[in-house]
Amino acid sequence: MSAATVAMAAILVFLVSKDIGIQLSLYYAASTALIAATALVLKIHFFSVKEKNHEVVEGSPFEKAEKKTMGWKVVILVFCLVLVAITVPLYMVRFLDPTIWFLLIVCFASGVSLSDILFYYYIKKWAQLETP
C-alpha cells in the first residue's frame, strides 16, 4: 500500500509538473526525502522502545542509549506532533498558493509512505541479524 502511494504521488507530480515547472518538482523530491528521513528516524527510535516493559530493547541499535521509562511526556509529545501535522496544512491553505499547498500535502503523504517502506527493510535486516 505504501509503495502504491509513493508511486501514485510521483506520477501525480510528474503529470502536474508540466504546469508547475521543474523547480517545484525538485522541491517535491527534496521535501519528500526530508519528511521520509524524519519519519524513519522517529519510527526507528520508537521501535527501539519496548511497549511491554517500557525499556530499550536489548540488542537493538539503540541498546547503548540510556534506559528510561516512557511516561506521559512522550504520549503528550506524540499527540502534539499528530495535532500539528493535521492542523498546519489546514492553516496554511489561507496563505499559500493552491498548487504549493497541494504539493505539500502530496510531499507529506509520499514521505511518510516512503519511510514505511524503508522501515520495513530496516526491520527485515534487523531480524536477520538477530537470528543465529
What does this structure look like?
The chain is mostly helical. The protein is built from 4 helices and no strands. It has one domain (2-130). The protein is flat. The model is unreliable at 50-54 (pLDDT under 50). The longest helix has 33 residues, at 98-130.
Shape: flat
Largest sheet: none
- Indicate the structural class: mainly alpha
| SS elements, strand count | 0
Number of helices: 4
The structural domain count equals: 1
Relative helix content: over 70%
Distance between the termini: 31 Å
Which whole number gives the mean pLDDT? Answer: 77
What radius of gyration results from the CA coordinates? Answer: 18 Å
Low-confidence stretches: 50-54
H/E element sequence: HHHH
Binned strand content? under 5%
Keywords, please?
132 residues; mainly alpha; 4 helices; 0% strand; flat
Draw up the topology in text.
Layout: H1 2-20, H2 22-47, H3 72-92, H4 98-130
Brief rundown of the structure:
The chain has 132 residues and is an all-alpha fold. The chain contains four helices and no strands.
